[in-house]
Amino acid sequence: MTADTSTSRKKNVTNILIIDRSRSDCDIIKKALEDSPDIEVTGTAIDGKSGLTKALALKPDIVLLDAGIEDYDPAEFVVKSLNELEQLGIILTLNGAPDQKMVQRTIATLENGAFDFIEKLQDAPEEQLIESLKRKLLPKIRTYTIKMYSRIAKMVSGESKIADRKQPEMRIESVSGPEIIKPKQQLSTGYKVVTIGVSTGGPEALTRIIPLIPPSFPLPVLIVLHMPVHFTASMASDLNKKSNLTVKESVEGDVLKPGYVFLARGGQHMTVKKGAGGQYFLQHNDDPPEHGCRPSVDALFRSVSETFKESAIAVILTGMGIDGAKGMGLIKQSGSMTIAQDEESSVVWGMPEAAVKAGIVDEVLPLNNIPERLIEITGVKK
Fold first, then answer.
1. What is the mean pLDDT of the chain?
2. Residue 199 falls in the annotated catalytic set
3. What per-residue confidence (pLDDT) applies to 20?
4. Does 66 qualify as catalytic in the annotation?
5. Name one GO biological process term (predicted).
6. What is the tens place of the pLDDT at every residue in 39-61?
7. Fewer CB near the last or first residue (10 Å), C or N of the chain?
8. Which superfamily does 172-378 belong to?
């Protein structure tokens, strides 16, 4: 099917373009998607240059982009394609356990606006490869499609526009409804930690928050980002290069101190405990995944509620699913402050929505306003 005009598209069908340097992988991905009536593969390409040309011509809803394409930097591909196709979703596909170069490529591409990524099985029977791709790809494709149609509907009705990354006015939404107000100065010397939970869209969101926090920020920051084990060290290193604070992947026994951001290492839950000497330190465990995730936002938030009581600021950002809502409820019950990212600026308003609908969020903010609000709450002098 040729999908270069809106009239040639099938109604309620998500159009997919596959770009993969392996023709056999292209074929297997097509087979994984062909039984889904709501999805249609409208084209394939085996390199980035021809893939970009096809993307601009076919205007697909989603591009499945091989992170290992050799003729084009995937991050550059994302920037160029999103400049032309604002509603385009890009899902990276990686071959097996990636090496360090591929990890860094993937993180850079996510930070530039790719929707998400999956790791493809290697050296397995075709039927197993297809089933694995179905399990990993279909939820992400459908989640993005829901987001896309919701945004388009709001744009058509005049309720919304594509989120502007420069939002000069702070918008706070109470759980009972949105309200445009200037927040009251809410200074406190009692806060001891900021804790953040984030998933889909997380690398880009964190890149737009953490570097804006000044070196004088008085609290340690704890982050759970849903990422596999071999990605979190590189993500922390990349953030560290861009930030005023020291960003590091968490290590067992790390002592919390101002000026540091601790990103939970992949594959384990991260929790915090108060030691006999009054210091707070990090612990890790191999408890079962929660909501299919390890590390889990809920695991960290529960720990923070028990350890810091009313002295925490909890932030939940863009992400698929409901991880973090229960834990944020405990943090709220303990008397701490809670903030959620708003729908307009979220890549996926799943985790924040779950917290907002539970009635446990003090403020709902656009992503760009969150760093300024944290600075204001803690009374930092910039």
1. 90
2. yes
3. 97
4. no
5. chemotaxis
6. 999 999 999 999 999 999 999 99
7. C
8. Methylesterase CheB, C-terminal domain (3.40.50.180)
Q: Where in the chain is the domain with CATH 3.40.50.180?
A: 172-378
**The model's pTM:** 0.86
What tokens were used for 364? 């709902």
| Residue-wise pLDDT tens digits, 343-370 | 999 999 999 999 999 999 999 999 999 9
Picking from 10-19, 66-75, 214-223, 234-243, which range would have the lowest pLDDT averaged per residue? 10-19
Return residue ranges of the chain for CATH 3.40.50.2300.
6-157
Taking the C-alpha atoms of residue 138 and residue 136, their distance in angstroms, rounded to an integer, is 6
| 329 contacts 302 by C-beta, under 8 angstroms | no
CATH homologous superfamily of 6-157:
Response regulator (3.40.50.2300)
Express each pLDDT in 140-198 by its tens digit.
999 999 988 877 766 666 665 444 433 333 333 444 344 333 343 444 559 999 999 99
Catalytic residue (one of 199, 243, 336, 346): 199
Catalytic residue among 25, 66, 323, 342: 323
Active-site residue, selected from the candidate residues 226, 269, 284, 291: 226
pLDDT at position 382: 61
